[in-house]
Write a sequence for this structure.
């Protein structure tokens, strides 16, 4: 069915056409067929944008959406500077293993609907709260029913039953778990950080993923300087995620690569850590994405609008750069060329903002401004 | 009509009863008649809170809701560190004077509805974009149709036609404008700051307001240290608002007074100014409120949830303190004892959160979590 959205005050294409005023966009099912200004073509259905702004849908390239339980008590204690004997990720592993697949599906589906209401039209979902063959598989199977961008993150943390035997766990991840995961996931990821997996372990996991046909991504340099960012470049990861602590050498390596730097600013908000300096990374010429990192420990939000606002307020990005990072940047981080832009041949994934321009995403922080989310031509 | 909200996971009373679990609240029209735990009383209507959290409605004691135009271009330039020949408040004065009363009413009513959706059940509205007798009156008349908490802020800034003649403008404000305003407003306010009104001018305006039967409030110490906070105490203002730059003496004076310290954290977010240190003020024993400061220049948001989250992330408040400040603190800043709490005799102004506890307002930043707003017993 053909649809035209017309009377668009501002249409962001993220392509050579730039930003069109007094514009329309013509859609045929899952694909955009044309954009233009002035009089729109005929169509089966017309949507009046009422002079509002239309942007490509947000591409959220980093989430941990499949889990049970919450960690609000741990969060409240952290915010108050109070001590709290937190189990961190392991707390969520325990709750997730204890949950039925039905409950996990229900919870993840509800979060997915929330993400859609927040204007997210493509979402990456990681496993990583199962951490054994059985429960990682359950998460991956739920993930593949929700999105095409499923990531195997068996290497999220060393589970309790392998404490002191990290290499044994890496052996399991690169062996039986990887073999099973590869049937359900498109990506492999590892948490390369002190306290999680070191450089050699992370490289082994990425190599095993590549050998199994998976694309590569890496959690890197979140809590301090480390080898992750340069390992991501060495392995041609699609994305190095977090990148809160980058050296000049890290930035040079990233800027000279096709590895996207994915910032997760709601994480710094929720952990009271310092924000990364995105300006430095942008000025070096690296491609930057912003994602929500939706997870129950360090960033329990689906609000890409808030992430954009934080990137501008705290990380030295302009509003235009932050919007780009949340749309085409996310697409680059998933190595997708069909999303993150709007024009003939793109997916018809877009958002009508309840505002005349995308500046309002930052100008009106915290105010819900997603008037309509369209995915594959369907209003959600 | 009697209503019972039952199956409440957590009920915040802001009174001696504290926080009740497995609770209910019984309502008769505009008033709460009882709260309790266990089996609820019979009622004409039952609302199932589905184990979620119920809090007193947010009391937003500082907004500038009546204006035309926006200043998104000025905002975007500021966020990018670019120069921008901004007229600031005067830009909005020009747009507001040019607008019809019908348009101003329509715009303010829409913002009011947005505030209700954000869980705000009582809202203070200031004039201050008219700045002449005719246009201040139009704003005050619109304000009194929307809320009982209308504030005359003729002393927002010296209007263009009085530049270089500030005392003449103060004469107008304290004379003819005050006389006319007193028929429509409950409060008088002034912007005591370098570039706006000095200590003597501000005192004269507050004294004239008191003589006209108005309650007193003051914009104080927003952009730098100044006499405002102590002037507010001297004049027994209900609230000193902003208070971003307070000396030890200012804090001592406020803590020993019945003047509430009202923080407006979305303003610091939107102006890239440093956040105030609320911890210092709370530890001194002052009463603290949080408000949105919704206005088109420095804080165009109705999201009290975001203000609460910023107060916790950036200002040293616990989540409980921030919730208190956004509810009973706001009530104290308006010298109201019928709102900001829930129990026999309170107004039936409350919010059902889409969350099991108010911690989620900060734990899930940017996520809309207002499931139901009730004002005077009516679901909005």
């Amino acid at each position: 069915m053909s649809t035209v959205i017309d009377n668009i005050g501002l249409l962001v294409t993220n392509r050579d056409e730039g930003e069109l005023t007094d514009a329309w966009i013509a859609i045929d099912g899952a694909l955009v067929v044309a954009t233009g200004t002035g009089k729109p073509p005929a169509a089966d259905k017309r949507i009046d944008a009422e002079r509002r702004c239309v942007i490509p849908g947000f591409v959220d390239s980093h989430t941990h959406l499949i889990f049970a339980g919450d960690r609000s008590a741990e969060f409240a204690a952290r915010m108050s500077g109070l001590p709290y004997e937190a189990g961190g990720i392991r707390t969520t592993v325990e709750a997730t293993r204890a949950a039925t697949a039905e409950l996990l599906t229900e919870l993840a589906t509800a979060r997915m609907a929330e993400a859609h209401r927040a204007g997210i039209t493509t979402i990456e979902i990681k496993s990583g709260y199962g951490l054994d063959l059985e429960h990682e598989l359950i998460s991956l199977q739920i993930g593949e029913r929700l999105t095409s961008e499923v990531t195997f993150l068996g290497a999220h943390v060393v589970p309790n039953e392998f404490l002191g035997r990290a290499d044994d766990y890496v052996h399991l991840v690169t062996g039986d778990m990887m073999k099973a995961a590869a049937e359900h996931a498109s990506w492999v990821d590892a948490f390369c950080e002190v306290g999680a997996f070191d450089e050699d372990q992370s490289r082994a996991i990425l190599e095993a993923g590549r050998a199994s046909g998976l694309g590569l991504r890496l959690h890197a340099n979140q809590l301090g300087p480390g080898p992750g960012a340069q390992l991501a470049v060495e392995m041609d990861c699609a994305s190095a995620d977090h990148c809160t602590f980058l050296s000049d050498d890290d930035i040079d390596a990233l800027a000279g690569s096709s590895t996207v730097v994915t910032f997760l600013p709601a994480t710094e908000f929720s952990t009271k850590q310092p924000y990364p300096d995105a300006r430095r990374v942008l000025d070096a010429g690296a491609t930057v994405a912003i994602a929500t990192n939706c997870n129950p420990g360090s960033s329990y939000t689906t609000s890409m609008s808030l992430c954009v606002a934080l990137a501008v307020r705290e990380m030295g990005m302009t509003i235009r750069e932050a919007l780009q990072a949340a749309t085409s940047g996310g697409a680059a981080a998933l190595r997708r060329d069909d999303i993150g832009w709007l024009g003939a041949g793109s997916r018809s994934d877009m958002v009508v903002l309840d505002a005349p321009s995308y500046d309002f995403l930052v100008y009106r922080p915290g105010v819900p401004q997603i008037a309509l989310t369209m995915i594959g031509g369907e209003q959600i």
